[in-house]
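The protein record filed below.
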Amino acid sequence: MSFNAMRTLTGCLLDIEASADLADWGRSPLLLLVQDKPAPTASHRARRHMRAVHLPLNDSRMGRYRAGLAEFLPDLAAALQPDRPVARPTLAACVDISLIADLLADPTPGLRLVAWAVCYEDVLVEPDELHEIRRIDAVDIDRRGYQITRLRGEQQPVVFIDEQCDTDDAPATRPGLAYLVESTHRPGQSTPTTS
């Protein structure tokens, strides 16, 4: 992905985090499918429009996954692989798989996958105390990791972009997000190059 596409994706994720912050704490996790397509009014063919589709997760049903999102994301990725049966009751109780399949099969000319992301609340454990933290973890089609975090009460979030997705200190959600990208990125799609 180009620098402009990375910057646009980061801005998109920051907008989602800002919206989550306005909605306050105690929200269910949110799965995000990020795609781009040619801008409809652009005179220059390289101009693209990025969208993040919000896919709410049923928080009460997510308890069926003992490891939470770290277990749910690979299960979803496996279900979305071509030639795999989608019927999985536990998974279907957590997210609308048919909606995701329809979004991935959207025939809009030039529509391409950019990234998968998840927005969730967590607890940060420090030696002396616990802190509530909101995280957005994402993986783009180049397997680059993005992490946006905000401690409860902080004015600004912190942004970290990791060029190497398989590091030891990566969030537990990153392997599942990388698997989602791998499972849903179709070979005929081109890499986003501009915003």
